[in-house]
Amino acid sequence: MLQYEKMAPVNSAKIKYETDRTNKEFIEEYISALEDYVSSYNNDEYKTKIEELKKELKRLK
Fold first, then answer.
1. How many CB atoms lie within 10 A of CB 51?
2. Maximum distance among all Cα pairs of the chain, rounded to whole angstroms
3. Which candidate, 27, 7, 31, places its Cα nearest to that of 19?
4. Are 34 and 53 in contact (CB under 8 A)?
5. Which of 1, 30, 38, 45 is most deeply packed, by most CB within 10 A?
6. CA 54/CA 5 separation, integer angstroms
7. d(Cα 61, Cα 18) in Å, to the nearest integer?
8. Rounded Cα gap, residues 2 and 57, in angstroms
9. What is the DSSP letter of 21?
10. Are the C-beta atoms of residues 6 and 13 closer than 8 Å to each other?
11. Entry pTM
């Protein structure tokens, strides 16, 4: 149950990001949500996604 609750912000941020992949705020929100989730639940896939998003954000700045 708690893990499901932690996924809600990740899913919300992912939807925003997929709507506009060039919006820096959406990327930052998605990174933050993933980092919060990963701090509680180890997920290598999400750790990889965080690194990809950080690189993408640097390209946009």
1. 11
2. 37
3. 27
4. yes
5. 30
6. 24
7. 19
8. 30
9. T
10. no
11. 0.93
CA-CA distance, 61 to 35, in Å (whole number)?
A: 20
Angstrom CA distances, 58 to 9, 21, 27, 33, 36, stand at 23, 13, 11, 18, 20
- In tens, the pLDDT along 9-25 reads 999 999 999 999 999 99
Helix (H, G, I), strand (E, B) or coil at 42: coil
Q: For residue 46, what are the contacts with CB-CB under 8 A and spacing of at least 6? A: 10, 34, 37, 38
Rounded CA gap, 10 and 15, in Å? 9
* Two tokens, residue 17: 């990001």
Q: What is the mean pLDDT of the segment spanning 12-40?
A: 97
